[in-house]
Amino acid sequence: MTGSIHPQAKIKVFEQPFVFETPHMGKEESIPVLEVGYEEWGDPRNPAILVCCALSQSTHATDLHDSDDFKEPWWGAMVGPGRTIDTNRYYVLCINMLGGCGGTSGPASINPDTGKPYELQFPIVTVEDMVRSQHILLDHLGVKKLYAVIGGSMGGFQALVWGILYPDFVERIIPVGSSGYSNQFMIMTNRVQIDAIQRDANYRGGSYHDGPLPSMGLAIARMVGFTTFISPIMMERKFRKYHKSEREPFTDAYFHQQMFHEAENYLHTVSYPFSKDFDANSMVYLLQSWTHFDLAVKYGSLAKALEPVKAKMMIIAASGDNLFPPYLAEELVKTANVNHISVRYELIEEDYGHDFFLIPEIIFEKLTVPLKEFLAE
After folding, report:
1. Whole-model pTM?
2. Which positions are catalytic?
3. CATH classification number, 186-292, choose in 3.40.50.720, 3.40.640.10, 3.10.20.30, 1.10.1740.110
4. Alpha-carbon distance 42 to 127, whole Å?
5. How do strand 30-31 and strand 79-80 relate by DSSP bridges?
6. What is the pLDDT of residues 249-280, one digit of tens each?
């Protein structure tokens, strides 16, 4: 398949059809075989905690300080021995999202009926589909109950849906920097990213696996995404200097060919490697799943959506998050209170931006204590 599968990820193959929630032209959509990629840490006899991935994160939430790991973990400050999500105390799992390219079935997976990648023939994926595929794996692994489900951003969508679909299976849900729906800013920026990918000349209607990849479109999409992950204040702090010397002559050729600022260089540095390591169709699918996530539309209202929830909730927002502003979390808190759900709200004062929950300093200084308290209740 095209895209990155982390070497540490395990892949469980279920030789049975998986039926998707959204029909196509009135017909049920399914795939004949479901693959689920995951990693696990700790003793399976301990209380289980599921860590849900955000948009492009792999299953590699932590490495337990294994120096042989291929790639740095994305949540090593949160998950591990003695950390907030303590792998000495909990059995911790991280599962790749359905539709992604990290081991779980997605558009880059091989369709066993044709021997070729599904590409855009892969069914439409909802967050509910993602959670149902995760439940199938946990059932296979013998997990009877989740002590907690935690996830940031799109991972928070999954945490909420876990509480809705499987109210007796999960005891605590912890959406971090997340919400019950996608607001208009998310919808617009996601649309730009999808168009950037699909308008790449190499995209070819999603059928690019036998030729050059649409790397430029995917890189541009990722640049757009990165501009939403950090706050304007943090941008000013990080990127005040010119990338080139200010003393260089400002010529027409220089203007057209060079990047002036550190900010421009940063976007290229983080985006182009990503475009070689992620499947473009998977990014389109996941962005669409994000864009169309709206619990109120699906269930009639946010209050009706949360009616089944029995789990305790801890909702975490950050003052500097311009992608998921605190008002989105506060709507969830108010609705939980209306439904008499036990809910704790933590507003983190920080100005980093949406990726606050990935920053070790913020985790250690502002998230560790309230999260440990909530998990110990």
Report:
1. 0.93
2. 153, 321, 354
3. 1.10.1740.110
4. 27
5. unpaired
6. 444 544 455 656 788 888 888 898 899 889 99
